[in-house]
Structure formats: C-alpha cells, structure tokens
Amino acid sequence: MNSNILILPGSLRLGSYNRKLASEAMRLLSMTDAVISRVDLADYPLPIYDGDAETESGVPQNAQLIAQRIAAQDGLLIVSPEYNASIPPLLKNAIDWASRVRKVDGRPVQPFKGLVVGLASASPGRFGGMRGLEAIRIVLRALGAEVMTQQCIVLRADEGFDEDGRLTDDVARASLEALCERLLDTARSLSRHG
Questions:
Q1: Structural domain count, the chain
Q2: What CATH number does the domain containing 18 carry?
Q3: How far apart are CA 67 and CA 94, in angstroms?
Q4: Residue 109 domain boundaries
Q5: Which residues are in the NADPH-dependent FMN reductase-like domain (predicted)?
Q6: Of 61, 73, 177, 184, whose CA is between 20 and 30 Å from 119?
Q7: CB 8 within 8 A of CB 92
Q8: Comparing C-alpha atoms, which of 156, 185, 183 is closest to residue 172?
Q9: Are 33 and 26 in contact (CB under 8 A)?
Q10: Pairing mode, if any, of strands 4-9 and 35-38?
C-alpha cells in the first residue's frame, strides 16, 4: 500500500524560499511510490482562532477541509519560515483550527494524533529557521504527532536556489533528500491507515 504524504508550506508569499523548498521536496517525493499532495493555505482562508466564535458558529468549513486532508495522510512535511524566532501566524492559526476538528466523514478523529511529521525551513539568516521549527515541534507533539528529530535547514536561502528553484548547496540538497527518505520510511512503518 502506498503512503500518503502531504506537503504544507507555511508561507503565502509567491517568492517565498519555503515555497521553493516545498516544491523541491515535492519533486523528490514524487519520484517515489508515495501519493504526494500539497496544500496551499491561501486556498483555505480562516479567521483568527477564537474560542467564543467556535462555540457560537462551530469550526469553519475550511478548517474542516484542512483537517480532512491531514487525517487522510500517513505523513506530513511542513516547510515553514520563522517569524520572530517562532511559528508564522498563518501556520499556527491553521493548526489551531484544524486541531479543533473532532469528526471527519462522521468518524471521530484527531487529525494530528499519530501523524508522522517532518520539518523543514529556508531562511536568508544564519539560523535557517531552526528556532521556528522548534516552536512548531512543541505544538505538534502536544497534539500527538510523531515529529521526526531529523529536519532540513537551508541557511542563506537568498542564494540557495537556482533559476529553476533547485537547491544549489550540496549540503542542503543532501539534507532535504535524507529528510524526505526518512519521512517516507517512517510514515510507512507507522502508517495510520495500514
């Protein structure tokens, strides 16, 4: 049975280094037997999470759709920038809303519980988004995800991609390849659907 892997960029910027890195990961994973898909948070606009709004109106349809996509996966690769040494608000808000979904297609579900998650980040800075990934790791572990220790950090991302969007640095490319391979192997062995 083929594993289902979802790639989730944590940025909406068209020229985002993280969107480029997500595209590279998708290219690499597409060469395997896994079923690879990508979700763009621009397609699922959400209000800022508010418990009162949830009580009054329920979980928004877009959050339910994101949760449904996540619940159907064996693995998730989040490729996210770092904002002020933490999680970008867009990504955090989507995670917060999706975590509130309790049923998908009439079945009880916790979208992140038992999900194998890999993390990657590209930044023009010297930390490569590492601090933001640590913040994401804490949140996802609290939601029951199996967050892999291995991650991919692309330093100096402003000079890290060629005109075709491919990684130019051998170390970064090897790191992304290793992360994708480990994500796929771990998702296969811990499949929630097998």
A1: 1
A2: 3.40.50.360
A3: 9
A4: 4-189
A5: 4-152
A6: 61
A7: no
A8: 156
A9: no
A10: parallel
| Three-state secondary structure readout of the chain | CCCEEEEEECCCCCCCHHHHHHHHHHHHHCCCCCEEEECCHHHCCCCCCCHHHHHHHCCCHHHHHHHHHHHCCCEEEEECCCECCECCHHHHHHHHHHCCCCEECCEECCCCCCCEEEEEEECCCCCCCHHHHHHHHHHHHHCCCEEEEEEEEECCHHHCECCCCCECCHHHHHHHHHHHHHHHHHHHHCCCCC
Residue with the larger pLDDT of the pair 128 and 95: 95
Answer whether residue 158 is part of any domain. Answer: yes
pTM of the model: 0.96
Domain-embedded: residue 97: yes
* Tokens of residue 98, six digits: 């999706």
- The C-alpha atoms of residue 171 and residue 27 are separated, in whole angstroms, by 18
> In this predicted structure, what is the pLDDT of residue 14?
85
Mean pLDDT of 163-181: 95
Contacts of 188 (CB under 8 A, 6+ apart): 3, 74
- The candidate with the shortest Cα–Cα distance to 79, out of 34, 155, 156, 25, is 25
- Residue-level pLDDT at 104: 85
Q: Has residue 194 been placed in a domain? A: no
